[in-house]
Write a structure and sequence with these properties.
Layout (H helix, E strand, L loop, with lengths): L7 H11 L9 H14 L12 H14 L3 H13 L16
Helix pairs in contact: 2-4, 3-4
Length: 99
């Protein structure tokens, strides 16, 4: 981590984490699930490049921080869940079901 350049906000977060100001609220089951998801996302053999809005990227980074994952791992995990059927398209159920 010595070679990683952090901006001011990242440095403040790291210092707060190192000083014990953060405490995980993940249950043991959720922690195990997240660890397994992270492990699965490290089995990568292809690379993609995508363009997304800064707002979406910032939201992904916040969610990843909440989960304790690098944001790229979170994105990879979400995509994996989607293609393997683990995520459902809730917008598909909205049309025609309001009657």
């Amino acid at each position: 981590m010595a070679n990683t350049k952090l901006d001011l906000e990242e440095q403040e977060l790291l210092e707060a984490y190192d000083s014990g100001e953060f405490e995980s609220d993940l249950s043991a089951d959720r922690r195990e699930y997240v660890a397994k998801a992270a492990e699965e996302t490290f089995k990568k053999d292809k690379r993609i490049n995508i363009r997304i809005s800064s707002r979406d990227l910032e939201a992904l980074q916040r969610r990843a921080l909440e989960e304790g994952l690098p944001y790229q791992s979170l994105v990879s995990s979400v995509l994996h869940k989607y293609v393997s059927g683990g995520l459902k398209d809730i917008s598909a159920n909205k049309s025609g079901n309001s009657a």
